[in-house]
From TrEMBL:
GO terms for molecular function: phosphorelay sensor kinase activity. The keyword Protease does not apply. Residues 207-260 form the HAMP domain. The chain crosses the membrane at residues 20-39, 184-205. SMART domains: HAMP, HATPase_c, HisKA. This is histidine kinase. Residues 268-485 form the Histidine kinase domain. It is found in: Membrane. The lineage of its organism: Bacteria, Pseudomonadati, Bdellovibrionota, Bdellovibrionia, Bdellovibrionales. The keyword ATP-binding does not apply. Its EC number is 2.7.13.3. It comes from Bdellovibrio bacteriovorus. Gene3D superfamilies: 1.10.287.130, 6.10.340.10, Histidine kinase-like ATPase, C-terminal domain. It comes from the Bacteria.
Amino acid sequence: MFLKKIFSPLSSLSIRLRLAIIFVFIFGATTIVFNMFLFKAMIDTLQQDFDDALFNYSVDVSEGIEIGIKGDLSFPPLRLDHGKILPFPLGTALIQVRHSSGAVLARVGNFGDFNPPYKKDFERIWKGEEATYRTINKVSNIPSAEADSYRLISFPLDNAAKPQLLLQIAVPMTLLETQVRQRLTLLQIGIPLVLIIATFGGMFFSTRALKPLKNMIQTAKEIKATELSKRVPVPNAKDEIRELTLTMNDMLDRIEQSFQSQERFVADASHQLLTPLTIMRGELELLQKTEKKDIDGFIKSSLQEVDNLADIVQEMLLLSRVDAGIGALNLQDLALDEVVFETLPRAERLANSKGIKLKFDINNESGGDRKMIRGDNDLLQNLIFNIIENAIKYSPNNEIVTITLNWKAESSELVIQDNGPGINEDQLPYIFDRFSRGSKIETRVKGFGLGLAIAQKIAILHNTKIKAENRPGHGAQFSIEIKNI
């Protein structure tokens, strides 16, 4: 939710700019967090080195202090070794020896009003600590303070189980403060500079990365309805942009095929509609030159052509409904055998005109109850009728068309077999195309070549497999397989 609020204002920007901003944001946040931990670790290391040097100095100073045999508190003057190289100036160190009672036994340096704390230091040393350290940030009581802060060490002088004497040394942290300021200044300048470089780098690389996408956009703009054969250039890199390019080219293939199919459909439909209109025009012109007693024959022929036109228009309307997709379906639970029984009377009228018998068998391969399917009853009847009608048309007179329903465990299969001449092998791939008529005797069979195309469309809408093949010997076989529910 937090990141969504951050990145939501970026939605109106270009992808290139969004990628650059997101890259800089992630890189900058990571860099800043990393440098914060690095800076903290560096400060701790410098502090530890400073404390180690201060501890060694305290040991050197403690070795120059003499304590009487009887524990008397008389001391010779403290000696300082000015030859040592330490991270603090020796001449400005404040040194004192303090008793657990609070009494200051000796001092070196100008303490002024500065009175180092000591009680908690005694307690910590009595608990076993080797020495204690404090940072004194309030330096206004120290005359001529040379730094903004001092480091104070409290070191036991006597070796008793409970030491009573502390050596306290306060030194200015000038060098440490300088090192911290220098590194902080480096980070304050370096991080913005790195982020500026990262911004330009992000813009450059995002531009390079999106260049194939820009080429895709430019190519897609240039593709017109008359130039659907163009394709988007495929980049060499095996990445998501290549996958997007291949997907777009596949889509263009489908669009081109769809356009070609529509063009063929319009051309074929025009031809199919033009034929009966031409016949009607010729007969009407002939009627004008003929005696009126022959008018009944002309009317009968014209009505037949009108029926042909109506059949073509009806099938084209059905195709348009099927092309509308699944939203136009009236889906319900159906028994496939009942759908077949409802279709048979319509098919029998056509079969009787050729003396063909329809034989319907049910084969329950699963051995269970009757299987149910889900689909549009009217469209499924059209699918089955068109296949049966095709079998009747291409079967010789007085033959048998066999319809077999196979109930399987997962699906129901309807197999329709005829005893016709079969389908030319070179026409099998196109048998379900619109206005395709692939039989060897197609010129002698009445039809428009839309029935199987409609059947295929209905089958696709119902996620159903439909297959056409030649039977051994002679005849064709169509199988329709639809999933059970």
